Amino acid sequence: MYLIEQKRLLERLRAVLQENYDIQAATLAIEQPPEIRFGEYALPLAFELARRLRKAPRKIAEEIVAALGEVPGFAGFEVAGAGYINARLDRPAAAQSLAAASTVSAPEHPIHALVEHTSINPNKAAHVGHLRNAILGDTFVRLLRAAGQQVAVQNYIDNTGVQVADVVVGLMHLEGLTLAGVQALMARLQQEQQRIDYYCWDLYARTSQWYEADPEQKQARKQLRLDTLHAIEHGGNDTAAIAELVSTAVLRRHLETMLRLGIEYDLLPRESEILHLHFWDAAFELMKAGGVLYLEAEGKNKGCWVMKRAGAEAVTDGPDEDAKVIVRSNGTVTYVGKDIAYHLWKFGLLGKDFGYRPFFEYPGHRCWITAETGDPDHPHFGGAQAIFNVIDSRQADPQANVIEALRGLGFTRQAANYTHFSYEMVALTPRCATELGYEVSAEDAARPYIEVSGRKGFGVKADDLIDRLIAATQAEVDSRHPELPLAEREDTARQIAVGALRYFMLKFTRNTVIAFDFKEALSFEGETGPYLQYAVVRTRSIFRKADTTPEQSLADIHGIDTAPFLNGEEGDSIWQVWLRAAKTTLLLEQCIETAEPSYLARHAFQLAQDFSNFYRKHHILTEANPDRKKLLLATAAVAQRELIRSLALLGITAPEVM
RNA sequence: GGGCGAGUAGCUCAAUCGGAUAGAGCACCGGCCUUCUAAGCCGGGGGUUGUGGGUUCGAUUCCCGCCUCGCCCA
């Protein structure tokens, strides 16, 4: 509703500017007045025109208001302040229209988008940083789908990388296990119901320390690490089999952890297939032919295949010492090289495809994994028109280089539709680190936050956090609603815990470092998920007691004259809820355009606040005037509808009671 | 050395393309449960937006210098 009126107003304004001043305005700024009593839209355009027209802003604003005349859906326009034009909606009409529906206009040609998120090295348990990634990515998927786009969700698995190699070194050389020994270990862990990702968390940290522990052995151990990595990359040996076994088991644990938060994937592309299906060879040929790669003849990169770094100037005299090495002089391909090949595949430009086989079953949905020879009957993957890579900001440089390679190959459209969905890391506050029993140096204690490190085993595991959240919400629910059956209390506690966690990860803008603290994350008051859920629960209670439904209440205001109840200060306090509720679609569009889910989180919070204010001020069930009561019920209904809708976009559900 | 990001209330964060009195939450103080759920609501104190210039009707926002912190690259 809000967007439609906004577009109509701007169209009319453009026409007025054209007719009266012969001005073609491409973009017109539109805001909301500081207080709702001034109207719903504020236009500062008279200020901009003042100079051009050599007139006082107020005078221009008055002329424009006179020229606007009657605009359908609007009650009037007025000049305010030094020259603002404030627009007032026809509130009763707007309420009727919002009550009828809140729709998103479906795109004419839905985009085939590919969102990649989570992408945890399968060598240890997921931690809070991975949670931020997965929750951001999953939320963005929900936003795109709500806007009518076709979205495939991928979780990239680096199963042949150095991190997996470290755990394999730990198993084989610290624990002295063979392939059969590792199989026995995994069986034992399963029998004892121990999480293998937790076991690897500790082993990975131990192995990392072991490399450095003995100065005399340091060189030999680093060589062992390198040999192990190469054996894994090559495949077809026991070392690779151990890597496959362990990384796949850890991967399954990651999928289970994320499923606790309602996060699912369509495909798990693995590095092992990128290697074994020789994706790089195809990309190498394309890049050589396209002139993107060249063999450096002199300087420090002599003998390497390099490309111009993203954003760098072309070097004409001598070697480009700043160039990005793609193939080292010993013939090995760098990570960026493999990533370029993978991204050519994502856009359907590589001329090669993976094999696929089923890997994980969700209720009503199957997740596939790549394979050298797969199931012949599989869905189509890749070939996206737009891609979004949810990767932390530290990867900005390699991401830029992949985009640069695409552009260099002439795939400018694809390069333009490649979004590095960047976000800052989750770190721990020094207090949190101390609380967890880690030793904190004096230097670290003085910092606002300390970076999480899997190598040091330093961090908060995702499942531990979820477990703690559930324990805390369970205690609250049990004490508030002892009369409910256990299953219902558990389900309620789970929903609140998930709501608290998801909202916590979404309330910050992407480029803010989150300094994680249990006190804040386990808070259920104020700007938190449970606050939003509580607002919904209150509306549910109203409809239960009123013996009606939100749908019926929205239908019931059709035909009544709501105008007497939507004016003045009293009316403003009701209208505020409608106005906020009307903006959900606008916020959805803004979130997609800016790739910033936090705006919607904030919107949902503000709507919950508006409703809470309204709820306190107007007692619905005891309202004497029947028409006014209908409006109040419809207000609660529209608040509930848009809250549930906004929360769903954030991946949060609201329980029946709490 | 080069690149990117950040610096706003005691703390954690917002602030749409440059707009009206810079807003929330937490913490603190004081009120509100016999009326739809107090995981709530109302009120209060709390700001030289790191710093010095510039641009203009108007700057937290844009430009330049400096300081501090974080990340990335060699």
UniProtKB/TrEMBL annotation:
- What EC number(s) does its UniProt record assign? 6.1.1.19
The UniProt keywords, alphabetically, are: Aminoacyl-tRNA synthetase, ATP-binding, Ligase, Nucleotide-binding, Protein biosynthesis
**Record-level GO BP terms:** arginyl-tRNA aminoacylation
| SUPFAM superfamilies to which the protein is assigned, alphabetical | Anticodon-binding domain of a subclass of class I aminoacyl-tRNA synthetases (SSF47323), Arginyl-tRNA synthetase (ArgRS), N-terminal 'additional' domain (SSF55190), Nucleotidylyl transferase (SSF52374)
Q: Which residues form the Arginyl tRNA synthetase N-terminal domain?
A: 7-89
Q: Any idea which GO molecular function terms this record carries?
A: arginine-tRNA ligase activity; ATP binding
Q: Which organism is it from?
A: Acidipila rosea
**Which named protein is this?**
arginine--tRNA ligase
One family name in Pfam for this protein = Arg_tRNA_synt_N
Q: Where in this chain does the record put each DALR anticodon binding domain?
A: 532-658
**InterPro entries tied to this protein:** Arg-tRNA-ligase, Arg-tRNA-synth_N, Arg-tRNA-synth_N_sf, ArgRS_core, DALR_anticod-bd, Rossmann-like_a/b/a_fold, tRNAsynth_Ia_anticodon-bd
State any GO CC term.
cytoplasm
What is this enzyme's catalytic activity, as reactions?
tRNA(Arg) + L-arginine + ATP = L-arginyl-tRNA(Arg) + AMP + diphosphate
Name the family the entry cites.
Belongs to the class-I aminoacyl-tRNA synthetase family.
